[in-house]
């Protein structure tokens, strides 16, 4: 008792009102607390009741304390209080500078978002907005904030295409924000398109470079590489690392190809230099041999010393020739020249040897002044070789009688001229001079001079006088042409040399000017011509050709390609016109005509010698094509007049409106397929045709209006049925007829017209029907489970062998009859069937399976899936089948049943409870 007395006698401590059990008392006490009592207020700010928390936080005005408490235990009330204090709705409000500094340090997005919407100052809102990173919130503020500057600041921070697209749709109240979003979105799309174009261009350049690395060598190989590298430089900044690597690899391969070509070129140049050196050596050897032979041929009379010098030189040069031939080989031409020289030398030596043998006989014949002709014939001295002194004396001695007889014959027959032929040639020369044609006159004069110089006879006096006069006139004409052409030649020379130095001009302009200068030079002929001027002009022209070689080659290739393309275009047009389709569309033919003209204009220039004839051929083809277009357009006009007549008959008929509208659509399709008639006829026929079609479609639209009204009634009826079924909640299993009636009514109203509304109604209807079926099945399952006491009593009566009381249902009686006929099971098999029934009920009830029966789970689940291959049984049907299966177990001993009866009772009690949740309703 001392403890009781002590409690009774001790002074009673009173609990503060803010610690009262009643929340309203605590809230009233919080409102009366001093603002400095932070301990009590902090405790109340974490109270379980929202009104107490709100009352406690309303006593605080220090934002730092509120923030600290909010970070420790966040609540909607603390957030609302912070919004009031920092946002300026608390009066008197804190200084704006302090609130702005505080907002600049906040990180809580919900508080910042609320301050942007509810702050009392624009600066405060902008500061809070600067701390928000979520683009979705920025889009919201840019669309719905009440301050224009805040909306604009938020819009400026939206950068993603999705955010800008959303902002364009939502920013209806602020045109400036919408315009800003549209402009930025357009810029981003333009940038994206530009980046895509740049990416495509980079890919094209990379593919070109990679293909270029494997192409065979061509003169422009390095120039093309430089062009592509220069084109890559402005695009390189936007390339990714793999593209840079591809570019570096491709360029490295190309440069390696160039280095290999240069090395090969240097090797070729070295070989060429060596070949040139060998060629020069061979030329020197052959020239030395020829010079030696010429020296011998010029040595008159031929002496023994000259022959010995020839032998020594021939031996030296033959050794050199053999050395060069061994090192570099020898061409057929040089071998032939060397063989010819060797033949000449051999001929000379053979003649010299014969002379050595016949020299005593020749000297004896000369001393006796006998006939040397026979000895000279035996000697057979070459005509190209000068005779020795001995041979010269023998030739003079044998040639004296022959010369005397020849002189006698010549004096007896003097030469004469054909004066008529010579006069005709002089007349032709005079005619050319009168016409001022210098070149043909000079040619005739040159032929006459050759004849006069070759003839030993003298010209007749009259013809000689005329010949001299015409020759003087030709010289005068030549001088005059030279006087006129000399300044022009100097001018052309200056121009072409300056053009060769003018590298700043384009290749096309230089080529055009070069060809013009060549034409003007050729027009001068040989007037004032000299070897020096011709050589200067040719040198400058060759320099220009060398400079423009690549461009001229490219121009020639382009002209050839353009010529081939134009010829192919003409061949295509000819093929088209020779085999025109009977149903050729004039619009397609017009497009072909325009495209052909466009391609013709693009494929330029072409070689001039072929341009005129090909142009006339193309003009004829265009004329034939236009004739075909006009003919087809006339046929189309006739067919379209027939379509107008058919449309008029349809408009006057009184048949079904929808059928006539479908026929009108077919007519419209045929109208489009026909193409265009001539322009004026097309417009007139179209106005008539459209008028008849409008009449037909107006009748169809009126019919559609009536159909839509009936469809709307069906929609309303179906919506009412859905709402009625949605509001109905079955309470017992016998209410399935309500669901069946609703399904029959829905079947009567279906099908609904296809639309989004009908699809939505169908989805909602199916969901409600499924939910009601699940509820009814659950109620039926509960009702079926509640019959378990009767089934248990009948089962126990069957086990005991007594009569069943009360009378069981027919299905149970049938099972009992089957039990009497079937073969009894072994004790273990009977227990296993009983266990399977228990496992199946556990699965149906969603209850855990006993650990001892866990191995049977898989078998039972497989059996349930096999049963569901046809129409799966509903949970009530499955429960009934399981209960009936208990009666087929024979024999079922009472002791065995007693061991499992409690488990069946617990499961079926769970199934029979109205609030069960774990039933497997599939």
UniProtKB/TrEMBL annotation:
<dbReference type="Pfam" id="PF03993">
    <property type="entry name" value="DUF349"/>
</dbReference>
<protein>
    <submittedName>
        <fullName>DUF349 domain-containing protein</fullName>
    </submittedName>
</protein>
<dbReference type="InterPro" id="IPR007139">
    <property type="entry name" value="DUF349"/>
</dbReference>
<keyword id="KW-0175">Coiled coil</keyword>
<feature type="coiled-coil region">
    <location>
        <begin position="251"/>
        <end position="288"/>
    </location>
</feature>
<feature type="coiled-coil region">
    <location>
        <begin position="168"/>
        <end position="203"/>
    </location>
</feature>
